[in-house]
Design goal:
Shape: globular
Helix content: 25-40%
Distance between the termini: 99 Å
Number of strands: 36
Length: 973
């Protein structure tokens, strides 16, 4: 003991203090057996404690992987330059991460990196779901000026595992320790806790006030109830301040600045410094020391951290702990899915006298769409803004949320409507307003983009109505983000190439045609990828264009399209009756290659159906490639891929595959995407929009999507075509009906668009309602055939009466509907649909026993018969001879297993639009049939189905104008 005492006195000789007093005090200290003996200070080994923490974290990572095998905690370490000391730290962090089971990626940027380039890298990592933690290794070794504070604040607070973002620092400052704690201070706190010495009530002295260590260390000790003093370069009598410390934390970066004589006996000393000093005894000529004179502190303090091996390993351990904590947050969300969007809804103030749709729409100020995107969980790189009221949503969100569980899936259909429509879209919008703004649920409305044809014709828009609308309604109904125009361009490019190919094959020899199809460029010739696919389909296993035989050249070059069997038409997004039948090729330059063809409206294009059914870019490309555009002279199908157009169409459609984000009047999200014709195609919004919405709402949320027209057309196709393609199982059907429609089906006078309603529709008439109930009952039965609960939404009108509503509700319950609810969303917005929303929520709690109507291995005729009998109530089917011939051809060419997309009037359950209510055992005539091989269905046609509507005598055009002073659109609805 005297040896230690004499050694300590020698150490004191250099200091201007009262040595005799210190010696006497120390002697008394040494003579008291209950006190700590000099030379026996406990070394706080950060290496050992860090190992314990890593072992614990390894188990926690294993628990995460057991629950969610696809979730691997990820850490990105960003470095600018290549400083060797930084490389040492990074290697240590990567090694620790790998030992625990964390995926660590060293993102090393060159010295030439600019501040903007570094910020772009951090933004990318912020939005990458594979990384749960991001650190930026300091110092930044760049040839360009970079603001390090700006960089640390650029790291998302949710991934700031260093705890250096101002947001996380601010949380610590106010005592919110639920976020990421700064690693070094948190490691120091763990070391102090391991001593067993109480922190509460102790005097703690911090030497240093840096952002990284000193300042947050003081906050952590303060919130642990220590009395904290922060010392720095301006502090006077530093040694006397240190002498008072029960807990001493030193972080100044000055080698061995704090001497043992300054340390209070039995104090806990945490040395955060790491400095290199000369040492000729070392091979490197250098050794590492801390900010505290270690040997001197050992003989005074109760606990001391060594350097190296003290705070350093703990800093790394805390970094790993924060990363695992971040991954655990993600895991909890994925497992529990009990999260709610922080969405701020917009209030409505409905007027008793409901104004026009456009007046209501313009009375509401929409939220900035970037804010709405953020509220529903989209990250910036997933959102392409089109102004501040609409945005495209990237398909990357599906990859980011691939492990999220889907929300509830609800489809809205209707009964057989009047020409005025029964408010299906309005009900859908009102329902989602109610779910989100009034029930506190995550919910998204998925709607089709309306065609301009009806907008300028007579039907009007499709943005909903009254106080249940999508806004801005002008954008919704006019152009939007240009998807329909992209479909038009792709469709017509294919048509142009088809006719050009017919022309060129007719005017060139085999060799000339081949040399133009595979031209020599820079002395060599090669097949393009799309030409290689054609060679493969032909069974020609060659890659060198010079090796084809004359026979192979002929087969490759000639499609031999039969001009009389071309099925592809041009399209235009305008109602234009004079394009229903046209003659092309009349110019002398076309050498008398004249043929009859037609135009269709753009939304009836098969490309639009493909856009709605594609699940990703690859799927869309395959579908486009398989589109049959004509048949050759031998009867074999000719595809878009044969014409070499697939890639070019993909380029035109690359943005169109992304849904458009908009909002309702109450500021709730709407996904608008695709607009396939509801009678000639399947008439549903896109699979992609539904998929994105289902991931965003999460397990407890709701996605309400539409099916065009009634259950006999839209809902049937939704189930048998769309759900078959997507693999999604619906949770409920909302069947929209009106008293007005039942009265029409019960024998009321004709309902004519643009004409005043007759008295029968504006006064109570329970008898007419009762007579029209069979139509409603048939639609309910149609929904129940699929094993899904049916909620009937009675879309209320002011002329309805309680007696009429009560009769409808009683009947719905008697025939098996889950519920029948009166909804007044048109007049009241979401508040008016609150009861409907509750009924839908209750229906979704049941377990659906979903089943498809038919199997694909049935013949084409059998599938058509099944739909006609089960959905429409038909008794017999008549196939015209040309239809039977086409069915045989489709079957022979391998298309017999495709689902069926029936094309018939929406105004009746039969093929006759004048036949109302619910006829039974009628004959359904199939007078035509066509193939949509790319969309993946066969279209039988019942009655006259036009793919190009015409303008009425007085279209909406007369009312629509642009105010040249205000820039506002006038006369639109």
């Amino acid at each position: 003991m005297s040896q230690h005492y004499n050694r300590f006195l020698k150490l004191l000789e250099r200091w201007p203090v009262d040595q005799s007093k210190i010696g006497r005090d120390l002697g008394q200290y040494l003579l008291q057996p209950e006190k700590k003996m000099i030379g026996t200070a406990k070394i706080l080994s950060g290496v050992e404690i860090a190992k314990e923490i890593r072992d614990k974290l390894r188990k926690e990572v294993s628990d995460i992987r057991n629950k969610i095998p696809t979730l691997v905690p990820g850490l990105a370490i960003v470095q600018v330059g290549g400083r060797e000391d930084s490389n040492v730290y990074i290697r240590m962090k990567v090694k620790a991460a790998e030992e625990i089971g964390i995926y660590a990626e060293h993102v090393q940027l060159p010295r030439s990196t600019t501040q903007d380039e570094l910020l772009a890298t951090i933004t990318r990592l912020n939005e990458d779901p594979n990384f749960h933690g991001i650190i930026v290794q300091m110092p930044l070794e760049s040839d360009n000026p970079i603001d390090s504070h700006l960089i640390t604040d650029a790291v998302s607070p949710d991934k700031d595992v260093d705890g250096l973002n101002t947001v996380n620092e601010g949380r610590v400052a106010v005592g919110d320790l639920s976020g990421f704690l700064p690693c070094t201070p948190n490691g120091c706190m763990e070391l102090i806790r391991r001593t067993g010495i109480p922190i509460a009530g102790s005097n703690a002295v911090i030497i240093g006030r840096s952002k990284i260590v000193g300042t947050p260390m003081a906050e952590l000790l303060k919130w642990a109830d220590a009395t904290v003093t922060v010392c720095h370069s301006k502090t006077k009598n530093l040694n006397m301040m240190i002498k008072k410390a029960d807990i001493l934390v030193v972080a100044v970066g000055k080698p061995e600045m704090v001497r043992g004589a300054w340390v209070k006996p039995s104090a806990v000393v945490i040395d955060c410094g790491i400095n290199s000093i000369p040492d000729p005894t070392k091979k490197s000529g250098q050794r590492l020391v801390g900010d505290v004179k270690y040997d001197e502190a050992l003989v005074v303090a109760s606990h001391v951290t060594p350097v190296p091996g003290g705070v350093g390993p703990m800093t790394v351990a805390m970094l790993m702990q924060n990363t695992v904590q971040s991954a655990q947050r993600v895991a909890r969300r994925m497992i529990d899915m009990e999260f709610r969007w922080p969405i701020k809804t917009l209030s409505l103030k409905p007027l008793e006298q409901v104004p026009s749709d456009i007046e209501i729409a313009r009375s509401q100020t929409p939220k900035d769409i970037a804010l709405l995107a953020s509220e529903i969980g989209l990250v910036r790189s997933e959102v392409s803004l089109y102004g501040d009221k609409k945005a495209k949503i990237s398909l990357k969100v599906l990859e980011r949320l691939r492990n999220e569980e889907d929300g509830k899936y609800v489809v809205v259909a209707g009964i057989t409507p009047t020409p005025l429509g029964e408010g299906k879209s309005t009900t859908l919008v009102g329902l989602v307003q109610a779910l989100t703004a009034h029930k506190g649920c995550n919910s998204v409305a998925c709607l089709r983009q309306p065609s301009q044809g009806p907008t300028f014709g007579i039907k009007g828009g499709a943005a909903g109505g009254g106080y249940s609308q999508v806004i801005p309604m002008e954008d919704f109904n006019l152009h939007l983000t240009g998807d329909i125009h992209a479909v038009t361009a792709a469709n017509n490019l294919l048509a142009a190439q088809l006719d050009a190919r017919i022309f060129h094959e007719a005017t060139q020899t085999d060799q000339a045609l081949y040399e133009r199809l595979v031209p020599a460029q820079k002395g060599s010739r090669k097949f393009s990828p799309i030409q290689q696919r054609r060679l493969k389909r032909l069974g020609i296993d060659k890659v060198d264009p010079y090796t084809l035989t004359p026979e192979e050249i002929r087969r490759f070059s000639r499609l031999n399209i039969d001009p009389h069997n071309v099925v592809w038409t041009r399209v235009l997004d305008v109602n234009d009756r004079y394009l229903r039948k046209i003659t092309i090729g009349l110019s002398p330059t076309e050498k008398n290659m004249i043929r009859d063809t037609s135009f269709s409206i753009s939304v009836s294009s098969e490309i639009m159906a493909i856009l709605a059914l594609a699940t990703n870019l690859g799927d869309m490309k395959q579908r486009l490639a398989k589109m049959v555009v004509a048949f050759d002279r031998s009867g074999a199908p000719v595809t878009a891929d044969d014409l070499g157009v697939t890639g070019a169409m993909m380029v035109l459609l690359k943005d169109a595959i992304e849904p458009t984000l908009m909002q309702t009047l109450e500021g709730t999200p709407v996904m608008v995407h695709a607009g396939p014709f509801a009678n000639i195609a399947h008439g549903c919004s896109s699979i992609i929009a539904d998929d994105i919405a289902l991931k965003l709402v999460g397990k407890p949320g709701y996605v309400v999507t539409e099916a065009g027209f009634g259950s006999d057309i839209g809902m049937e196709k939704f189930f048998n075509i769309k759900c078959r393609a997507s693999g999604k199982i619906p949770n409920a059907v909302v069947l929209v009906m009106t008293v007005r429609a039942l009265k029409m089906h019960g024998g009321g006078p004709p309902v004519i668009s643009g004409a005043p309603l007759r008295r029968e529709y504006t006064m109570e008439n329970v008898e007419l309602v009762e007579k029209g109930l069979p139509n409603l009952i048939k639609h309910i039965e149609n929904g129940l055939k699929y094993g899904v609960p049916v909620v009937v939404a009675i879309n209320a009108h002011s002329s309805d009466t309680k007696a009429e509503h009560d009769l409808i509700k009683r009947t719905c319950k008697q025939v098996g509907a889950f519920a029948a609810v009166v909804s007044n969303h048109w007049a009241l917005g979401g508040a008016g649909a609150a009861d409907l929303a509750q009924a839908v929520m209750d229906a979704c709690k049941t377990t659906p026993n979903f089943k498809l109507l038919y199997e694909l291995d049935l013949t084409i005729e059998e599938k058509i018969l099944k739909i006609a009998k089960e959905m429409y109530g038909a008794g017999t089917i008549e196939f015209l001879p040309k239809v039977r011939d086409a069915v045989r051809l489709y079957t022979d060419k391998g298309f017999g297993t495709l689902p069926i997309c029936m094309a018939k009037t929406a105004m009746s359950l039969t093929g006759d639009p004048s036949a109302k209510n619910a006829p039974k055992d009628f004959k359904l005539v199939i007078n035509d049939i066509c193939l949509s091989a790319g969309a993946g269905f066969i279209v039988p046609m019942c009655g006259e189905i036009t793919k190009m509507p015409g303008l009425p005598t007085r279209p909406s055009i007369f009312d629509i104008d642009l105010n040249t002073e205000t820039g506002e659109i006038e006369g639109l609805f």
